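Methods: example folding runs. The two proteins below were folded one after another, and each record is reproduced exactly as written to the output file, sequence line first and structure-token line second.
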Amino acid sequence: MSTPHIICFGPGPKFKGGIAQYNTALARSLKDGGALVTIVSWTQQYPAIIPREFVDKTSRSSFLEGYDIPVQYLTNWNDPRTWRSTAQAIAALKPDKVIIQWYNPTQGIPLKTIAKYLRKHTKAEILFDLHFVAAKEQSSLDARLTRMALRHGHSFIVHAYKTAEELKALMPEKEFEVTLDGRRSGKWQVGQRQVNSLADLEIGRSPLAILKLYHPIYTLFKPDPTFDKEAWKAQHHLRKHVFLFFGFIRKYKGLHYCIEAFAELAKQRDDVSLMVVGERFWQTVDQSKLSTKLKNAVFGTVKKIFLKKADDERDYDPLALIEKLGLKDRTLVVDRFIPNEEVPPYFQAADTIVLFYETATPSGVESLSYNFKLPAVATRVGHFPETITDGFNGYMAEPKNIADMVRVMNASIERPIPRENVVEATKNMSWANYAKAILRG
């Protein structure tokens, strides 16, 4: 059997954030599984009016070091000419599978162009890797843009049953089959030409495969075996029990709940600290520059037109609660993007990861914490009840309930979760198993 060639389309390793890390880790795992892999990336993922810096300009290391995986930066959201040229470049590689990272409905038009072209001009299986279907900030256009692109997929990867149900609701006229091990019983087989539209009769008679997998454990960040936890904590004035909030500061991640719950916990005990480590999502560019002010004005107008919710997240500033609630001596705040090399100490110094989300799709921060054997305190939203067993590898609180969040934070101290429980709960969530399921079809 010939070596399969797989294209991983999504943000390349030069970009910030979990999707770029995910796409890189996926490419590595498929390479380790015996495939020939190429990453094809955006050069600019979003409309130019968005006032945010998306490129990682601080990390010194690349997660592709030691891997023979070429990266081609080809697709500019703002230049439609690159959409077709990207599809042509992918087709010229004669891939067996093209895995497209789906994580923002604004990308629906370019990804529709690319996927539709590849269905017509290649024999590749087109898989959409769905980090969500229903957006967290759902606009009146989101469902239309999402459907516009996803209708050109042969198969779909989801990390939670909730996402599978959202996909079925998006295309109720289609028949789907859910597979847990990657086997597809429908018409799709690698190397056989498939019909070019989900509207075509043949594919209408064949169920579309939903690969229900999981968000694999991030092994990109390695624990330092020489790390001196107590010395590091003393250096940073941390107390005995340390909670960690990590990653981009977005409203749906519930940092405001985390800080308010921690404030109540700190009234009850003097042996707790909180680390808030991550970049404020909308504060990554110089706000005083004229170009930023213009982008903010245009972007704000567009959001008001299309968002169903009037709330503008750019004004979200939960860090102000720290001073308001008198927590400065109890918290370590690192308000910036964390380069790859600096990530491990925060997880190694922590005792518990805090995931008090308002809504949740599978979380890269959760998967990253598992590589450091960290138990979680989390809210019962999204996929968390699928990955966290209350009292075994973490504790679960009711969403938006400060008292219940305080309860589970206390429980994590009074009845600490054994680290081996975290290992046991995640033993099947490896990238190797993940890649094997994708390659099986």
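Second run, written to the same file directly after the first:
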Amino acid sequence: MAKRKRIGIFTGGGDCPGLNNAIKSIVLGAYKDYEVEGIAKGWEGPIQMVLSKPSARVRTIETYTLPLGEEDVRRIDRAGGTILMSSRANPFNYKGNNISHKVTKFLNNRYHGVIVIGGEDTLGAAGKMAQQGLRVVGVPKTIDKDLCGTEYTLGFDSAVNMIQMLITNLKSTAGSHGMVYFVEAMGRKAGHLTYWGGRSAHVHFMTIPEVVTNYRRLFYLIKKRKKSMPMKRGFTLDGLRYTIALVSEGTKLKGIGEIRKGETDPHGNVYLGGVAAYMCNEYIQITGDKDARSWNLGYQQRSGPPSNKDRLMAEALAQRSLELVRSEDFGRMATIEGNFVGDTPLDVVIGRIRILDAQECFDPDNFQHRISSERIYNEIEVPKK
């Protein structure tokens, strides 16, 4: 009996709900025909296997790989995150060195094909390595939904639902104390999470990375809103006694720019965070209103089990990726376009991102979404800066 071909699977970048569902769907669709192996910690796994000393190579491979069969994945779809763990390692910049060719050679020697589940950085690296000959297929996942070539990315719907729930819960406290809350959501270059989360949670104001935010005008509108609240028996009417502004982490403040932490990740992205706290402090200093707080939603946005949509999307994208492996159509990524599952060259994700068409869907003077009778909103693909 001929030896079965081996395929590898790994997840890279930030975790999100739906990853385990994709892993399970790939394994169930492939294990009878292929030997399926999980690779731990994203690109970090292959990098460590490549860099290990010959005397330790077998032990290192055992450390970073996991045989996957039907029984191994039976329960994993019940939880969020990824059983294979993840990392932001980059084979093109690992401790200052480009070892991508070594990783390509190692993966091609060990696997018939590799399925990489990731976002713009993880799949961007996969796309460049496909140009070097790596037999790789991509599955799009990122709660930021900023990948080019696909209308949907795994994890986005779950994250929006989580944001909506967290802000809805916050309203009871904010309303009880008449507070102004600056709430920070993820979104480095694209405001999809803030836009959809803000709309579904009915926040009063939002800021997105696609436009420069005149924060002094925002503060003016918040104060104006508070002054216009009608008083009755000593307090303002319910629904008008608090304000919530949902702020993307990549918000560019007028005259200041992004709020950065200074460090960069292996893919060259500057770590962001703290813009909500900064805006809250400025609001208090400028307006004198001390009834203001900030809240960074942080990793809660991508925690927990997947939504129904992400469960279904994981299955559809996984099966498409497996079809690409079977047909040996490597260097491509599974995609969702409308109601159709398709695929596109991985090249489309290299150096480009998918952002909101802010001119059509956002009102920068009032910090609110625009309502159209023709479509919910529009997206555009632009070079990554």
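Comment on the second run: Residues 156-177 form the longest helix (22 residues).
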